[in-house]
Amino acid sequence: DVLTDQIAAGEVIERPASVVKELVENAIDAHSLEIDITLEEAGLQKIEVRDDGDGISTDEVLTAFKRHATSKITDRKDLFRVKSLGFRGEALPSIASVSNVTMVTSTGKTGAAVTIKGGELVTQKPAEARRGTTVTVADLFYNVPARLKYLKSPNTELSKIVDIVNRLAFGHPEISIALTHNGRELLRTAGRGDQLQVIGSVYGMAATGQMAPIKASDADFKISGYVSLPALTRASRSYISVLLNGRYVRNFAITKAVIAGYGSKLMVGRYPLAVINIEMDPLLVDVNVHPTKQEVRLSKEEALSHLVRTAVAAALGDRNL
Ligand code: ADP
Ligand code: MG
Prior knowledge:
Blueprint: H1 2-12, H2 16-29, E1 34-40, E2 46-51, H3 91-97, E3 100-106, E4 111-117, E5 120-127, E6 132-138, H4 145-150, H5 154-171, E7 176-181, E8 184-188, H6 195-203, H7 205-208, E9 211-217, E10 221-228, E11 233-234, E12 240-244, E13 247-249, H8 252-260, E14 271-272, E15 274-280, H9 301-318
Parallel strand pairs: 1-7, 12-15
Antiparallel strand pairs: 1-2, 2-6, 3-4, 3-6, 4-5, 7-8, 9-10, 10-15, 11-14, 12-13
The chain binds adenosine-5'-diphosphate (ADP) and magnesium ion.
């Protein structure tokens, strides 16, 4: 029921950025090639995610808004084993319980449009049959004043959205992802499968000439990606992105290992830009992870850290610095 959904929303949907993350992940799971994200007022007034993916068949649209109706896995350790990003089947019902949602979706045959207000179905009617899905989330948290109060300034909320979209884009260079806020385009990736090109879209094309590719592997891990030359740094380590089997994660040890790879090449208080891809057996991910918090613990973390550090050092050394 709506109340259960609202309680779950408290866990899954913390802020506008959580909505964007869940909707874009759904679009990715639906094999989209193009994803358009449009925001008004840092997402508080409107978040719209339009994709050209599989769509939902007309008779299943309402099921998508039912809690756990679509749950694919039951155990957290399956998180990194399944290919799809979604697995709990609670994002849509949670979002719908704390906002006004419209979904227009089609598999290419018939189309359906549903409007859901505070978790209750308002209208369902036929719609155009353009293959894909558009989800519009308006008036987020209008019925949960405590949530609204807890939010930071619009600028901070917007930067959290940008941050999430950037990292989803790094993990999916094969998808063209665009982000527009109050009519201004903030990001557009080419969707040509080139991760360096995505880095250019995110950090500016000039940055791509200052990124060194990294590559390393051992029996357990395969590492690839890009790290900035010591001349290109930022005042925060949040420009270091780690993708585990394509999924963005937060892990202090790996971040530290990236920085350690620079040795004494970084000035105090300066941090590199980096996108680090790690392919590994999902069983090496600690099961004690929170599904939305993105923090992971790994067994063999020390071996991985060593591999990352030496890969970064080698990439920088190769450039004779
Ligand atoms: P989950 O992603 O965990 O399965 P969600 O609540 O996020 O749960 O979505 C419920 C279901 O609705 C998905 O499993 C999927 O079948 C369908 N769905 C949601 N968004 C889309 C979309 N953009 N394109 C196609 N199907 C979608
Ligand atoms: Mg989902």
